[in-house]
TrEMBL record:
This is Extracellular calcium-sensing receptor-like. It comes from Kryptolebias marmoratus. Keywords: Cell membrane, G-protein coupled receptor, Glycoprotein, Membrane, Receptor, Signal, Transducer, Transmembrane, Transmembrane helix. Pfam families: 7tm_3, ANF_receptor, NCD3G. Its main location: membrane. One of its GO terms (cellular component) is plasma membrane.
């Protein structure tokens, strides 16, 4: 029986449905609809140079799938004719033609339908008069639809396609009468790109059919993919009639590629050509992402005998059911008006027969044909209900209709003649019997907000080679935290380089395009993936340098105190009394303060320590130098007073000496007060000296104030040195001016050296230099002025006499 009904040659079906020259189904009615399908999937020109047939083509390779579509159209019309609610009293007829996948034939059929020209038809009933169709249902491919819509568009005859998805057909300027019951590839291409992006496949290959369907669909996918950061390693096209050499080039490109994901925007016939080629080269391990034309086609799965496409994922039209349609198709009987083969009775039962004609896997597309016929019927019903003022253009009414099928599915068209874009996400999952099952693993609804359009269900996915792990397809692994992406000219953006962030920069996310600069108080860690607080650096008491300077300061303080005790014990001896004991004790006191003030430079800077360290240093040193200057003046005045008629000592007595020391020191106090009042020193953070450290230091506030303090000290030191130098050769067995001269030489040398060293020393070392200068100059004064005297008092007491002091011993 199966051999009788589905004999595998084209004569079998041709004998059932009409002349093998133009297979056609036809039925008269009050209103006639046209149907354009291809019952054959290929054709060739007849050899005759002349024929009366206006379409001299020889059809080849039966396509039972499109015969299913024609049967769906017949079923819908029969159902409408039997309805009392829709078009009551009006009968619908049909003229259904086979185009054999020929675009030229499609155009001629469309023109014939428009011109009420019966194109060599064989009807179920005698045709008595020409009929002009009100609408055409079909074609199933984009390229023939663009041709037909261009031709019949000016006549305002609706063309409703069930399977033409090219986004180009949404252009109402070019195709004003085209409508469809399947979503536009504009949405499918974007959905595929979002699906690829969801699984983090950024490096993919692409294969497309070289026609309007494949080229336009892939163009939209490519544009969306680029916006989502997806790169195409290659994008190739082919057509089923291309040479084997071109197909081999595509195989070689796939072999040489590094991407593991292939997006296939191909028609079913092209997939039937590509799959054997893939199998011959054993190209397994690739994750296929398919368009709706083949991803849920059981015949394509049957062709893939080597399971090259196992784990494929893609978009399909949502599952559908039309009650009574399957039974109608299986009840197909051979026409009694035709010549029947002797082996057929005309009453064969197709129930249980496994064949492409009985396969209902394409029910979603069959349902699209059903909805298209009902859309025309509802538009006609709307026209018949209108009064004379109603617009009688069926095209306008179809665009405005909105109804629900008997299964509850809502049907309408938007301004572009497209339906709502909804898809199911299908995953090819092998079953126990070796047959591929189409598991629904998600949905896509273009009417929802962008972040909610793609919704994957919590189901197990099967990937390439039956793996349950999501495959990886990237040109370059993600840049880890601590690096940034760098693009290279002429190389796809997905094939970037990962460059480590620079010092003081960080990135804490993967695939960062920039490195962020750390805040001033932070610095990047070694991994460059975080900013850590910089180490605060200052001269502390705990570090070795701080300990050494503190020890030197305390040692100087103790040494000064010891000298003071020695002087106090021998205060009545000629040596102490001859050297102005009052100024000596005041000088020792000032030296003690000088040693101690160096301690204010050590430790974490604070507001009070910053103001104290410079002012205390300035005032104590001026007090010290004032005392030394006083001692020098005393020596000079003493020897000047020995000259006849000289009364200098009366002008520079003890009172004047105290006032001079106090006055000179008070001037420094005034300078410091002005400095502190106008712009005092303050603690600051220095970020410039070291990149990874914060230098805590005391800012000068006013540089003029600081250098005024130092300048005043330098001026007094210079005067002291000049006076001591003048008194160095005065007659005396123990001339103190010599020692003052040496001490001032050391003092001036230290502070002249201090200036460049202070300016060039970084961070805490500048503080150490200042402390060293204070201690060095203080030790110089202490040692040069007081140690020789202590030596005489302790080691050479015999020289500590008045005679010896006067040079008479």
């Amino acid at each position: 029986m199966q051999r009788c009904v589905f004999k595998e040659n084209e004569d079998s079906l041709c004998r059932q449905i009409g002349n093998p020259e133009i297979p056609q189904l036809s039925k008269n009615g009050d209103i006639v609809l046209g149907g354009i399908f291809y019952f054959h999937s290929s054709w060739k020109n007849r050899q005759e140079t002349y024929t009366q047939n206006p379409l001299p083509l020889e059809c080849m390779s039966l396509s039972f799938r499109d015969f299913q579509f024609a049967q769906a159209m017949r079923f819908a019309i029969e159902e409408i004719n039997n309805s009392t609610d829709l078009l009551p009293g009006i009968s619908l007829g049909y003229n259904i033609y086979d185009t054999c996948r020929s675009i030229a034939r499609s155009i001629k059929v469309a023109l014939a339908l428009n011109n009420a020209d019966n194109v060599s038809s064989t009807s179920e009933e005698p045709c008595n008069r020409p009929v002009k169709v009100q609408a055409i249902v079909g074609e199933g491919s984009s390229s023939p639809c663009t041709a037909i819509a261009t031709v019949i568009g000016p006549f305002q005859i609706p063309l409703i396609s069930h399977f033409a998805t090219c986004a180009c057909l949404s252009d109402k300027g070019k195709y004003p009468s085209f409508l469809r019951t399947i979503p536009s590839d504009y949405y499918q291409s974007r959905a595929l790109a979002q699906l690829v992006k969801h699984f983090k496949w950024t490096w993919v290959g692409a294969i497309r059919t070289n026609d309007d369907y494949g080229n336009n669909g892939m163009a939209t996918f490519t544009e969306t993919a680029q916006q989502l950061g997806i790169c195409l390693e290659y994008s190739v096209s082919f057509f089923r009639t291309d040479s084997t050499e071109k197909l081999q080039k595509i195989i070689d490109i796939i072999k040489a590629s590094t991407s593991k994901v292939i997006v296939a925007f191909l028609s079913p016939r092209d997939m039937e050509v590509l799959i054997p080629a893939l199998s011959n080269h054993n190209l397994t391990g690739y994750q296929w992402v398919g368009s709706e034309s083949w991803i849920f086609d059981s015949q394509i799965a049957a062709v893939d005998k080597n399971h090259i496409l196992d784990g494929a994922i893609g978009l399909s039209i949502p599952k559908a059911h039309v009650s009574g349609l399957k039974e109608f198709m299986l009840d197909f009987k051979q026409s009694q008006s035709e010549k029947i083969q002797t082996e057929c009775t005309g009453h064969e039962d197709l129930t249980g027969v496994e064949h492409s004609f009985t396969d209902m896997s394409l029910m979603p597309i069959i349902n699209n044909v059903y909805k298209g016929v009902y859309a025309v019927a509802h538009a006609l019903h709307s026209i018949l209900k209108c009064n004379k003022t109603c617009n009688n253009s069926i095209l306008q009414h179809i665009r405005q209709i909105r109804f629900k099928t008997k299964e509850g599915e809502e049907v309408y068209f938007n301004e572009n003649g497209d339906p709502a874009a909804k898809y199911e996400i299908i995953n090819w999952q092998p079953e126990e019997n070796g047959i591929i099952g189409f598991a629904t693993v998600g949905v896509y609804d273009a009417s929802l907000p962008a972040d909610r359009q793609l919704n994957l269900l919590n189901k197990t996915f099967i990937w390439a080679q039956n793996s349950i792990e999501v495959p990886v397809s990237v040109c370059r692994e993600k840049c880890p935290p601590g690096t940034r992406k760098v693009l290279q000219k002429g190389i796809p953006v997905c094939c970037y380089d990962c460059i480590t962030c620079g010092e003081g920069e960080m990135s804490n996310i993967t695939d960062s395009v920039t490195c962020l600069r750390c805040p001033p108080e932070s610095w990047s860690n070694k991994r460059r993936d975080a900013c850590v607080t910089k180490e605060a650096e200052f001269l502390s008491y705990e570090e070795i340098m701080g300990i050494l300077l503190t020890t030197a300061s305390l040692f100087g303080t103790c040494l000064t105190a010891a000298v003071a005790l020695i002087f106090f014990r021998y205060r009545k001896t000629p040596l102490v009394r001859a050297n102005n004991s009052e100024l000596s004790f005041l000088l020792l006191f000032s030296l003690t303060l000088c040693f101690l003030c160096s301690l204010t430079f050590i430790g974490r800077p604070s507001e009070w320590s910053c103001m104290l360290r410079h002012t205390a240093f300035g005032i104590t040193f001026v007090l010290c130098i004032s005392c030394v200057l006083g001692k020098t003046m005393v020596v000079l005045m003493a020897f000047k007073a020995t000259l006849p008629g000289n009364n200098m000592m009366k002008l520079f007595g003890p009172t004047q000496m105290r006032l001079s020391v106090l006055g000179l020191t008070f001037i420094q106090v005034i300078i410091c007060v002005i400095w502190l009042t106008i712009s005092p020193p303050f603690p600051s953070k220095n970020f410039k000296e070291f990149k990874d450290k914060i230098i805590l230091e005391c800012a000068l506030g006013s540089a003029v104030g600081f250098w005024s303090v130092l300048g005043y000290i330098g001026l007094l030191a210079l005067l002291c040195f000049i006076f001591a130098f003048l008194a160095r050769k005065l007659p005396d067995n123990f001339n103190e001016a010599k020692f003052i001269t040496f001490s001032m030489l050391i003092f001036c040398a230290v502070w002249l050296t201090f200036i460049p060293a202070y300016v060039s020393s970084p961070g805490k070392f500048s503080v150490a230099v200042e402390i060293f200068a204070i201690l060095a100059s203080s030790f110089g004064l202490l040692i040069c002025i007081f140690i020789p005297k202590c030596y005489i008092m302790l080691m050479k007491p015999e020289k500590n006499t008045k005679k010896n002091m006067m040079g008479k011993g």
